[in-house]
Specification:
Blueprint (H helix, E strand, L loop, with lengths): L3 H18 L10 H4 L7 H28 L2 H27 L3
Helix pairs in contact: 1-3, 3-4
């Protein structure tokens, strides 16, 4: 029988996966439509998207660490890929923010 903690982690991982499944943008490029509804994006919209990415990074990293410590290597590897994609998106976002004149 699985523990309550294990079930909560699985639900959290599934929720994270479902929330990220729609954003399958290439890692090297940042699609403007993923950040805001009406490009060009304002500085505030970019900063809001950066905070969203930071939360996603932290959650994926935490869940990956917990899965690896439980011995669930497959889930840990998948969550690490989520972490890497989010990290690449944040890097691209920071480049866009640095190049914008505002």
């Amino acid at each position: 029988m699985t523990s309550v903690r294990t079930m909560r982690l699985r639900v959290a991982a599934a929720t994270l996966w479902l929330s990220l499944a729609g954003g399958a943008a290439p890692a090297a490029t940042l699609q403007q439509d993923a950040v805001c509804d009406t490009p060009p994006c304002t500085r505030e919209e970019l900063q809001r998207y950066e905070l969203k990415l930071i939360r996603r990074l932290q959650q994926a990293n935490r869940l990956s660490f917990e899965a690896r410590n439980r011995g669930d290597e497959e889930l840990a590897d998948r969550l690490h890929r989520v972490f890497r994609r989010s990290f690449d998106r944040r890097t691209a976002l920071l480049q866009v923010m640095a190049s914008s004149p505002e």
